[in-house]
Amino acid sequence: MTDKKQIGAVLVVGGGISGMQSALDLAESGYRVYLVEKKPAIGGTMARLDKTFPTNDCAMCTMSPKLVDVGRHLNIEIITGAELIGLEGEPGNFKAKVLQQARCVSLEKCIGCGACAEECPVKVDDDFDGGLGKRKAIYKLYAQATPNAYAVDKAKCLKLKNPKACGKCLKACPAEAIDHSMPDTTLELEVGAVVLSPGFDPMDGDLRGEFGWGIYQMF
Questions:
Q1: Per CATH, is 102-182 categorized as 1.10.12?
Q2: What is the dihedral of CA 18, 22, 28, 32, to 10 degrees?
């Protein structure tokens, strides 16, 4: 340990229920918190659930107050669409490098009305509900999403593939919040500690065929 000044900020990687609670606890203790989430909104897996074990409580009823608290807390900065790509230093003095993918929608201007999604001609499988439904190439992750703003799926957007191919969302947006030329950014954050709350990936159902995955129709 060196004699360098300790930095009173914390990086929390992962915006699921554990990451949100960690951010709130740290922020209430007076620390500056950078909450990094790779999805366009925080909430993680719990936002996808109906009920929680063992009390059978409503998942969103439990999580919604935390979404509001995290979104409003002055000591918490939410960084969505981002991943930690580099970390160096020592306890008390870390330099973190975070790559934030362009959202192509201004968080300051977007009013969350959904007019852009109504006009978007592209439909893709919605990963949020396990591919059972469809969403557009410009979308909001779920109804109560924080930040309450839409994001462009850059891999599916027709205008990003060919600028002359589309642009219907631009005409539909009343707030002029959409900017397809928005660049990716690399953030360098100085923090004293890092909390890792990466969550998990669903298991590949093909590994346990006895449960019927790939054998019985889902619907």
A1: no
A2: -130
Q: Tell me: pLDDT of 2 over 70.
A: no
Question: pLDDT digit string (tens) for 159-179?
Answer: 999 999 999 999 999 999 999
Q: What is the pLDDT of residue 218?
A: 63
The 10 Å Cβ neighbour count of residue 112 is 15
CATH for the 1-101+184-200 domain, from 3.50.50.60, 3.40.50.970, 3.30.110.40, 2.30.42.10? 3.50.50.60
Tokens of 78: 């939410």
Return the structure tokens found at 217. Answer: 């129709």
211: Cβ contacts below 8 Å, ≥ 6 apart: 205
Read off the pLDDT of residues 85-108 as tens digits, 9 standing for 90 and up.
Answer: 999 999 999 999 999 999 999 999
> Are 117 and 139 contacting, i.e. CB atoms less than 8 angstroms apart?
yes
Residues 97 and 212: their CA atoms lie apart, in Å, by 43
Using CB atoms within 10 Å of the CB of residue 82, give its burial: 0 to 12 exposed, 13 to 18 middle, 19+ buried. Answer: buried
Distance (Å, whole) CA 180 – CA 154:
9
